Amino acid sequence: MFSTSPVPFYLVIVNVYVFGLMWWDKRKAIRHEWRIPESNLLFMGIIGGGLGGIIARQLFHHKTRKRKFLICFVIGILVDFALIFIYGWQG
């Protein structure tokens, strides 16, 4: 009944985390406060948080002019698919 694979848990956590980081960074940008480094956002997107990043990017209209974010988030989505393919969703 329950998945023995850590893949679903990891994918949910990393994507929700990136979504939250993008929201927080947008909030800080609006308030002219100290921002989250782009390298952190990009790294988290590449290691599997691409879907959360893409959704946040569109929803919050944040980092939409920066092509490197789109590229990194697409790579992150490909990482998600690779993890699902290699390790399976149900384990």
Feature tags:
single chain, 91 residues, mainly alpha, 3 helices, elongated, membrane, DUF1294 domain-containing protein, transmembrane helix, Cold_shock_CspA
Explain what this protein looks like in three dimensions.
InterPro entries: Cold_shock_CspA, DUF1294. This is DUF1294 domain-containing protein. Keywords: Membrane, Transmembrane, Transmembrane helix. The chain crosses the membrane at residues 7-24, 39-57, 69-89. This protein is 75% helix and 0% strand. With 91 residues, it is mostly helical. The chain has helices at 7-30, 38-60, 67-87. The model has no long low-confidence stretch (mean pLDDT 92). The protein is elongated. It has one domain (11-87). The longest helix is centred in the N-terminal third of the chain and has 24 residues, at 7-30.
Task: Summarize this entry quickly.
By secondary structure, the protein is an all-alpha fold. The protein contains 3 helices and no strands. The radius of gyration is 14 Å and the shape is elongated.
> How many β-strand stretches?
0
Task: Tell me the Rg in angstroms.
Answer: 14 Å
H/E element order: HHH
Main sheet specs: none
Shape: elongated
Coarse structural class: mainly alpha
Low-confidence stretches: none
| Termini gap | 11 Å
Helix content, binned percent: over 70%
Mean pLDDT: 92
> Number of helical runs?
3
Percentage of residues in strands: under 5%
Provide the domain count: 1
